[in-house]
Amino acid sequence: MHAASHPNGEPRADVAVVGGGIVGLMIAWELVRSDRTVRVIDPDPAGGASYAAAGMLAAVSELHYQEDALLALMLESAQLWPGLLDSLPEGTRDTGYRTAQTLVLGLDAADKRALTDLRAAQARHGLEVEPLSVREARRIEPMLSPSLSCAFHVAADHQVDPRRVCRQLIAAIGSRGGSLVRASAVALLRAEPGENARVTGVALDDGSGVLAGEVIVANGLGASGLGGLLAPLESALRPVHGDILRLRVPDRLRPLLTATVRGVVRGHPVYLVPRDDGTLVVGATSREDGLSGVAAGGVYQLLRDAQALAPAVAELELVEVTARARPGTRDNAPLLGRMRDTDGESIAGLVVATGFYRHGVLLSPVAADLCRRVVDGESPSSLDAFHPDRFSQAKSKEPV
Ligand code: GLY
């Protein structure tokens, strides 16, 4: 561990990353690789939204209307994934990365119309999506239902296993001298005195602290609870809960699927992600009902819709049900970049990387790259659309 001790006894690092989910860990890995001392602060590393995530790297199939800046970021990050995986040291490369194709399926006529419209939007962005007949889709995946209304093929979307990626990142960060602090951040520390004083570290719930030249706040929804300079994030972030299932495919049914299957079933989105260990991840609901545990109706909906696409899902063993909250924002895009004060001035020592909503896994390499560039003193123009304070700045500039 490179983190040196400060005269007042607090450990000191070049960078403190608050949050050890896939985004925080990816940022920490990028920064230890640029020869910084890094401490990652999290009471339960990789136990939040990353623990639930299916891990689809789905820039093309997750396109939504009016999210052009986000699409560019997603496409850039999708390109960064292979290099990122190559950067991991020998012995930490078991990440479940698969370049298997994606099939997008609709069940009824309305689902077909929705997916046909989506394909038109994808085409306008130059994204390749190939229509298939249902027969062709079933030739690729014989376990699919014959009662589908439409099928499309997406070659560009891939997948990782986020739990494995996080495990490997923790090992990789440790191998380069980075360290994990198992505690919760409760407040930012600031140099005294003065309103414009830089952020100098993080206070922890055990009464200790971590001093750092830069603090990167990457703890998802937790970022809105740190108050002070981060108070604007309170109204910018909201929990969007998701239920997600893990099922085991019995030997006699393997492989149930080889491609990632994304469907719209009577208007409900569902995805089925086969893992190379013989399990199948089925997700995910999107709920804003405040229920943090698993919703019974969510499990029902996922199993019903997954079975509509692949009837043999009914014969699998249900091995896990998980619910976590995604950190949602008003425009579905992340809060990313150096934090600014109410006058719009950059706050020295404070960078934010949260609000990744449905795209935390896909966007983690580009978030890491951009955070490293910000820490290097750059102001990448690709961050212009993602200022962490963009909602509160826009409001404070409204005429009164
Ligand atoms: N990215 C998939 C989800 O949030 O469910």
Automatic annotation (TrEMBL):
Query: In what pathway does it function?
Result: Cofactor biosynthesis; thiamine diphosphate biosynthesis
* SUPFAM superfamilies the record matches: FAD-linked reductases, C-terminal domain, FAD/NAD(P)-binding domain
Q: Which InterPro entries match?
A: FAD-dep_OxRdtase, FAD/NAD-bd_sf, Gly_oxidase_ThiO
User: For this protein, what reaction is catalysed?
Assistant: glycine + O2 + H2O = glyoxylate + H2O2 + NH4(+)
Oxidoreductase as a keyword?
yes
**UniProtKB keywords:** Oxidoreductase, Thiamine biosynthesis
What's its EC? 1.4.3.19
UniProt entry tagged with the keyword Transmembrane helix: no
UniProt GO MF annotations: glycine oxidase activity
Residues of the FAD dependent oxidoreductase domain: 14-370
Highest taxon of the lineage: Bacteria
NCBIfam families listed in its UniProt record: thiamin_ThiO
Q: What is this protein called?
A: glycine oxidase
